[in-house]
Structures are given as structure tokens and as C-alpha cells.
Amino acid sequence: MVRAIHARGPRHAAPLVCVNCGAIPLQLVESTLFGHERGAFTGALQQHRGVFEAAQGGTVFLDEVGQLPAPAQAALLRVLESRRLVRVGSTREVDVDARVVAATHRDLGAMVAAGTFREDLFYRLDVVSLTVPPLRQRAAEIEPLALRFLKEASASNGREVKRIDGAALALMKRYAWPGNVRELRNIVDRAVFVADGAAAEAAIILEALRAANGNQSEAARALKMPLRTLVFKLKRHGIRKLGYEVG
Fold first, then answer.
1. pLDDT at 242 over 60
2. Which 8-state DSSP code applies to residue 88?
3. 6, 43, 67, 232: least buried by Cβ within 10 Å?
């Protein structure tokens, strides 16, 4: 979605820089977002431009913004309000011009009430809100998304997989997708890597088993199929219990 917003907006000719706030090591959050000077900390061997400077004139996408630690929240608020930043290890302000799009699966309102997310930052970010329903509530989008991911995964892996087995597609539409679109992409990527389009069913079953910590009854419920059907499919796909790998 953020790519579509960027591509169709007045900043489309400038960079779109995406960062997952939850994936950045705690000690590197501010450096990643705002940059650092040489010698600012151990390992800072040269000056580094952060995400905001890299996106000058364009768009910064802050995924999982609810996972930002408190110091980074304060620094982000200053950047949004002043349109200036200070690199780690510097006192000089740098002008920045970047639109910010933020996303999170967390309830930021509840986090504000609990004191774990700054109220002023919340309202600074919450200018225009878009709520995207979970994938399980958008079953009609599963097949076109899966086919798009199939095309991309086939190209990147040098494969010629052009279709997804009908049974696998039916299973995709029944599955709850706790990991939403990312989980769907991951499953399609895995299926293309290990075999052909029909292997998507095995990938979905493996994902459900891992999410259920190996509990077959729980996995069957998530897949909306009888346990005996799941057991049959495990045998058909050669899925071993130990580690839940295809063997």
C-alpha cells in the first residue's frame, strides 16, 4: 500500500525508504533513522546518513512504529515538528523534507493510555488513518496476491512455476493467516523454492504446524479441516513430525 501511495503522489520521483522499526537493534535505532558521525560510537568508522536523509524529498515508511523505544520516539517527534534532525554524535542540525507514513499492528491508543507510546507523537502521526483488515477478512484478495507473489518468486529463483494447485488455493482461502500478507508471501516463496506450484499446500500445512508448536489438532483447526484430513495430507506430502520438514 505504501508503494502505491508514494508512486501516485507528488513525491513519486524522490526516494521511498522503508524501515522496520521492530527489526533494528535497540542501540542502533537512532543511528538508523537519523544517521551518525564518524566516531560517534564503537564501530562508527565513517559518517552515515540515516533513513530521513536518504529519503530527502520523498517518503519514509516506518513499519511497526509502535516498537520504537522511548528515546527514539522523542527524537522522531522533534524531526516531525521541526523538519530538522541531529545525527548521533553531532550538534549540527540538518534540514530534512520527507513525508512519513507509519504502520503498526499494535493498538497505539492503548499504548498511549499505558504510557508506553508518546501521546504527542501519536497525534502527530495520526493525521490520516487507514485501517487495513487482516487477510483472513479479505479472502477474495488471497488468490491474486498469491499469483503475484508466485510470479515474483519464480523470476527471482529462476523457476518456471506458473500456477498454484487448486487444492492449495482452496486451503489458502480457509487458512487464518495470522501473519497476514507477509506470511502469504513467505509461503509462496518457500513453495517455489522447494518444488512446483502444488507444493504450496505443503508449505501452508508446515506453517500452520509451526504456528501451533506442532499440535496437529490446533493446526487442523487453523486450517479449518478435520484432523484425519490433516494426517492424510502429512503422509501424502511426506511431512515428518521431527522439525516438521518435508522428507
1. no
2. B
3. 43
Q: How far is CA 127 from CA 16, 61, 102, 121, in A?
A: 20, 15, 11, 11
Q: ∠85-87-91 over CA atoms, to 5°?
A: 85
Residue 187: name the closest of 226, 155, 151, 146 by CA.
Answer: 146
Asked whether the CA dihedral 189, 191, 196, 197 is positive or negative, the reply is negative
Instruction: Kindly report the backbone phi and psi dihedral angles of residue 85, in degrees, each rounded to the nearest multiple of 5, phi listed first.
Output: -135, 165
In order, the DSSP letters of 193-242 are: HHS-GGGHHHHHHHHHHHHTTT-HHHHHHHHTS-HHHHHHHHHHHTEETT
pLDDT score for 130:
85
Banded pLDDT at 33 (limits 50, 70, 90): very high
213-236 pLDDT tens trace: 889 999 999 898 999 999 998 888
Least Cα distance to 30 among 116, 81, 95, 90 occurs for 90
Residue type, 82: S
**Residue 18 scores a pLDDT above 70:** yes
Element (H, E) at 122: helix 119-125
Name the pTM for this structure: 0.69
Determine the Cα–Cα distance for residues 242 and 234; give it in Å rounded to an integer: 12
Q: Which residue has the cell 506430502?
A: 237
